[in-house]
Amino acid sequence: RSPTMAAASEIRVDQLPSDPLLHILSFLGFRDLVHCSYVNRRLNELCKHNPLWKCLCSKHWLQSSGISWYCLFQQYYRDLGRYIQYYAVLKKAWEQLKSFLLQRCPRMIASLKEGATEVELHDIEAQIGCRLPDDYRCSYRIHNGQKLVIPGLMGSMSLSNHYRSEVLLDVETAAGGFQQRKGMRRCLPLTFCFHTGLSQYMALEPAEGRRMFESFYPCPDQTAQDPSAIDMFITGSCFLEWFTAYVHNVVTGEYPIIRDQIFRYVHDKGCVATTGDITVSVSTSFLPELSSVHPPHFFFTYRIRIEMSSSASPEAACQLDSRYWKITTSDGNVEEVQGPGVVGEFPVMTPGKVHEYASCTTFSTPSEYMEGHYTFHRLANKEEVFHVAIPRFHMVCPPFREPQKAATSYTTRFDEHDDDGEYCDGDGDDFGDLRGINMAALEGAWCPRHI
């Protein structure tokens, strides 16, 4: 340790970043190079006389007798220094993701490809005739996407006979799908699903209603006379935001792991209700591949978990008989639905048992909320009937943009300014209308959620 670090908590060598470019960024924290030189000299001295330190320095500092760490850092900086603004964040995101996958979805690790080189990225830019953003290039220097395998790294969804799993495309395959057709000009695919043909794209130029470098799901306007008219479900403002937000949801458990796959259900921590010994919680997901802006058709799926406390009495065992839903759409319409069982099943609940099922719903508004209750009877006494509350849960599609202005009655504009203060409602610019739903207009309707 350097003298200035002596007062700080001790740092073990095996806890240091195993990446030369990150040593100055995170370990020395942009301190002056005198400290860097001191650390380098000290490690060189230890390596000469201590086999254990030599092994650790070789493993974690990539040192060898032929080159100093400082020279090694210079080499890395010459190669990757242009990405200094993004490298530490993206490297950390990738390491967190791989560490999580190693524990929960190990077969995905084998599908990751080694990083692309600068030459390869330059060649891709020449091939497509567009500049790739630096945050995208930086991530692909770390890992060049994944092999074309199932399950995809960017999440899955399974519902009845519908299945989606999105692969993070390597840059060569992405370049092969680069779009120049009207309605999708200068758009590079980020993901691909073999089963649905669905892709998320990144706009490499601000054209046809898109902002530069934002990511989106394309959505053909089925009501337009022009077949190239494309609406967009926006998924991120840039690659860095898009990728790191996804990784955060994965590693924090926001997205559940089901059968060694990442499922993109979102769970509101407040969407839980307990009645007696039974707890009901809900997670939801929007399916862009089954949705459209024109005509307004928004498809949602929800996954419900019913659990009886393990401390419940055996006499509390019960069976679900029916369900009741109260559904409120963003335009204020209310619908009530009753029916037997859940998806054709009548689960029996005993102490410690968990029952999960998935269902779906479609609406002509981009947002809605549902609440209701289940009706149960006790196994020991069929005459004892009771209700179990289902918490209110919201289903909200991502913001969507219409390239050409169209007066519609089923959507409400977002506030005229985005978080950066930039004008974004489409009046007087080239970006069209960014639309969504004003949930605050519905009394008690708002349930905060990260989409």
Automatic annotation (TrEMBL):
Pathway: Protein modification; protein ubiquitination. GO terms for cellular component: cytoplasm. Pfam families: DUF525, F-box-like, SMI1_KNR4. InterPro entries: ApaG_domain, ApaG_sf, F-box-like_dom_sf, F-box_dom, F-box_SCF_Substrate_Recog, Knr4/Smi1-like_dom, Knr4/Smi1-like_sf. Keywords: Ubl conjugation pathway. Residues 272-402 form the ApaG domain. Residues 10-56 form the F-box domain. NCBIfam families: PRK05461.1. This is F-box protein 3. It comes from Mastacembelus armatus (zig-zag eel).
